[in-house]
Amino acid sequence: MTSVRDLRPTDLRGILWILGETVASGIAIGLSAWSFGHIGKGWGWIPLWFASQLGLGLLMYHWFVLMHGCGHRALCRSRLLNDVFGHVASFFCLVPYTSWRYIHAQHHIWVGWMDRDPTTRAIAGPPPSLRMQRLMDFCWKFWIPVFSLAFGVSVFWNFRYVATVAPLARQRRKTWFSIVFVAAALAGSLAFGGAGFLSVWALAYFCFLVISDPVLLSQHVHIPLQRSEGADVAPFAPRDQDRFTRTIVAPAWVSRWIFLQFTTHGVHHAFPQVAHYDIHRVEFRPSHPIWWTRWIRAAKAVPATQLLYESSRESGKNF
Questions:
Q1: Where are the beta strands (DSSP E) in the chain?
Q2: Domain residue extents for the chain
Q3: How distant, in Å, are the alpha carbons of 6, 39, 174 from that of 179?
């Protein structure tokens, strides 16, 4: 049996993953641009354009997972390569790398403490207005992907919020750089590409958000979490964090090549230093496993506000 201590990331495998996703993204972008340019010649080009956009949306999700690995120093062994590739990946998923890394590091420290974890702090308070609740429930029911986008804008693009966990001057500079980098890259692409850029980006990004919402919400919502209520509490050790996570179980090839093991969240919290390409080699029994199709059906069967602001203790729904 392979020891977890032997599962260390390597620069070669990290570079190969980046090259593979770059080539695949280039093909998807090329097919999108080519097919969109031919739509005026016949409606038969629309299915190819749509398929290439869906593929690019999945690849954007892959880029997010690669950025996640870079933030943990778990895509490559080299710190420099992780940071360079993390910034490259951030453009594809439009999530500033450094601000995400600072927030995510605190998440791995405070997961389980709902009001201390910067990724769950917002839902530790009272629900929003009734009008906003109705809007959230409507969007969740009809697959309108606003949750990942709203969370990303309010947290990772929010310099002041990031500064609450990364207050040092050098951290602030790095946060600003990551935000400006993605904003400038997007603005430059829009300025030079115009409508052509949107034809190969807009629908793909929408598809990325559609994929991201149920995946990201699966990880920690509707699971009983604890509240510090302002008390001086200690973080849970990584080996104890699995009980505050949900693991989505899927066919091995889906977990490994489609989700890039990002849905095996319990083992990730226990061993965050293990790269996504090695996580399947870790023997682990998660506390909250659920089959992927059952998670979608169960989660979509309840309102978003109940999913987010209640746990299984209040709702009686264990999934």
A1: 247-249, 289-291
A2: 4-315
A3: 35, 35, 9
Q: Give me the phi and psi of 300, to 5 degrees please.
A: -75, -15
- Measured CA to CA, the distance from residue 42 to residue 265 in angstroms comes to 45
Model pTM score: 0.96
Q: Which residue has the tokens 């996504």?
A: 276
Cα–Cα distance between 263 and 255 in angstroms, integer?
7
Phi and psi torsions of 64, nearest 5° = -65, -45
Per-residue tokens: 86? 């993390």
Give average pLDDT by consecutive 10-residue segment, the chain, 319 residues.
83 98 98 94 93 98 98 98 98 98 98 97 92 98 97 97 97 98 97 93 98 97 95 96 97 97 96 96 94 96 96 89
- Dihedral over alpha carbons 304, 310, 314, 315 (to 10 degrees): 20
Q: Is residue 21 within 8 Å of residue 61, measured between CB atoms? A: no
Name the helix (H) or strand (E) containing 74: none
Query: What's the length of the chain?
Result: 319
